[in-house]
Task: inverse folding
């Protein structure tokens, strides 16, 4: 398997290497460096991997391992499916996208992504605007940034992703607990994460 599947980009000094279940049945994750930045990769036998549920989960699991690796690494995460023919093509991208990686790493250093969904209980009477205002008052002071996500169901009242300092995750979780108590029997609270901060990184690189 000579092709390279990319999970994200770290500072080149943050060498990463560990054995794990990786995308495409690979069993090792490691870095390929070019000057200041390094791509976190595993070997794969295709440049067009199929997004199975199993491999999508492996992609996310590897990112979590990297975020916790040797005390914690900041990684610019890539969406599923980024694969390159070999080292040369990958190093070309690392060279050409240096300014974008520099900005992204600065913006997300020491931060994680957390998700919050509120689902209306059946037959519940909920003032959605009031709920949105209440949630904003509780969580915006804790988060560095937040972005809205699609309300893909009629019962989905609220769906937002938050960029949060790692040290503030406990405070965020406590606020979720208070929210659950406040809206018991009216709203189902779905709290997810931590994730690599996909929603707060806008770096697009072309696979070759």
Result:
């Amino acid at each position: 398997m000579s092709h390279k599947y990319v999970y994200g980009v770290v500072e080149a000094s943050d060498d990463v290497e560990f054995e794990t279940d990786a995308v495409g049945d690979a069993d090792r994750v490691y870095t390929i460096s070019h000057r200041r930045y390094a791509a976190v990769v595993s070997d794969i036998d295709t440049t067009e991997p199929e997004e199975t549920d199993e491999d999508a989960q492996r992609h996310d699991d590897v990112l979590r391992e990297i975020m916790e690796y040797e005390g914690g690494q900041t990684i610019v995460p890539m969406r599923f499916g980024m694969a390159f023919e070999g080292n040369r093509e990958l190093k070309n991208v690392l060279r050409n996208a240096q300014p974008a990686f520099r900005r992204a790493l600065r913006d997300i250093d020491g931060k994680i992504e957390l998700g919050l969904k509120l689902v209306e209980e059946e037959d519940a009477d909920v003032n959605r605007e009031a709920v949105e205002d209440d949630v904003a008052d509780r969580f915006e002071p804790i988060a560095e940034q937040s972005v809205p996500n699609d309300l893909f169901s009629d019962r989905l009242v609220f769906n937002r992703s938050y960029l949060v300092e790692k040290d503030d995750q406990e405070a965020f979780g406590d606020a979720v607990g208070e929210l659950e108590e406040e809206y018991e029997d009216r709203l189902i609270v779905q709290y997810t994460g931590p994730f690599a901060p996909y929603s707060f990184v806008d770096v697009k690189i072309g696979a070759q």
Summary: Strands lie at 3-11, 17-19, 28-34, 37-44, 76-77, 83-84, 111-120, 145-148, 156-165, 187-195. Residues 3-109 form one domain.
